[in-house]
Design brief:
The structure is a single chain. The chain has 219 residues and is mainly alpha-helical. It folds into two domains: 63 residues, Winged helix-like DNA-binding domain superfamily/Winged helix DNA-binding domain (Arc Repressor Mutant, subunit A, Orthogonal Bundle), CATH 1.10.10; 140 residues, GntR ligand-binding domain-like (Four Helix Bundle (Hemerythrin (Met), subunit A), Up-down Bundle). The chain contains nine helices and three strands. A three-stranded antiparallel beta sheet has the order 1-3-2. Strand 2 and strand 3 form a beta hairpin. The protein is globular, with a radius of gyration of 18 Å. About 2% of the residues have low confidence.
Amino acid sequence: MPSQQPNRSRTAHEYARERIRSAILSGELAAGTRLRQREIAADLEVSTTPVREALRDLATEGLIYLDAHRGAVVRSLDLDEVREIYEMRMALEPLMIKRMLRTITDERLDTAAELCARMAAEQDLSVWVDLNRRFHSLLTDEGDDGKLAQTLRSLRASAAAYVSLSLDARPEQVGEANAEHHRLVELYRVRDLDGIVAITLQHLRKTLAAIEATHEAAG
């Protein structure tokens, strides 16, 4: 995992987290890989403290697990788990959408539109996956510290690795998702609850179907 020039707007913790996450989502760090803090810190040219914090964050996201004997290890992906994640999201996202429609601002929607433009131009799938997660968080739960919002943030983070794998196998899904994202912003601007929920559920079902197809092809 070679070092890149850190973006000065990011802390060392954020930089380490993004670099390790990108390496996992791109397949550079395969399932079962042991993540040694000192080696990663040396590769990224940071101290071990931000690496330790980054690994703790990635364990919360579900990308790695912390083993009492082996330390941090990249997780393998489980199809039953991803189905449960998407079933929970399809049940909970409409509740969050209804709540957010009461308070979402034009400024936030402008930011969402900017993220759409960045996703449309992005060629790096791991970066696109992170932008995608930020986009959905911005529209539905950013700034909300309630239990529902916390649960959805955790579910989206846990789904990130699966999304990356499905996109790698079915790259045309990116263009489809980008079009749906633009449509979602338009519907939020006119506060069309039914339309937003319909597209959101369609978006989730298509993503799950792509993940399942990828899993079957690999099997």
